[in-house]
Design a protein that fits this description.
CATH topology: Alpha-Beta Plaits
Distance between the termini: 17 Å
Strand content: 15-25%
Number of helices: 2
Number of domains: 1
Number of strands: 4
Shape: globular
Strand order of the largest sheet: 1-4
CATH class: Alpha Beta
Oligomer: single chain
Order of helices and strands: EHEEHE
């Protein structure tokens, strides 16, 4: 089994409305709502770069960048 490439999760907090869709679809439970009711990556090391959060965000507030090794 190949190890997933490291990913960087970029969340535009101004665009995030805290709907929780990204949290619901994340298979690795990387995201949670923070104290401001905005999405935050609480376990970024667990991200497998599936991009479900990025694709499902209705406000385009999330971007997943895969780091090339």
């Amino acid at each position: 089994m190949t190890k997933p490439k490291p990913a960087k999760i970029i969340i535009n907090r101004e665009w995030c409305k805290g709907c929780g869709i990204c949290i619901h679809f994340c298979p690795k439970q990387v995201l949670e709502l923070n104290g401001e009711e905005k999405a935050a990556a609480v376990q970024p090391e667990e991200c497998n770069a599936c991009r479900l959060c990025e694709w499902r965000c209705p406000d385009l507030a999330i971007e997943v960048k895969v780091e090339e090794e």
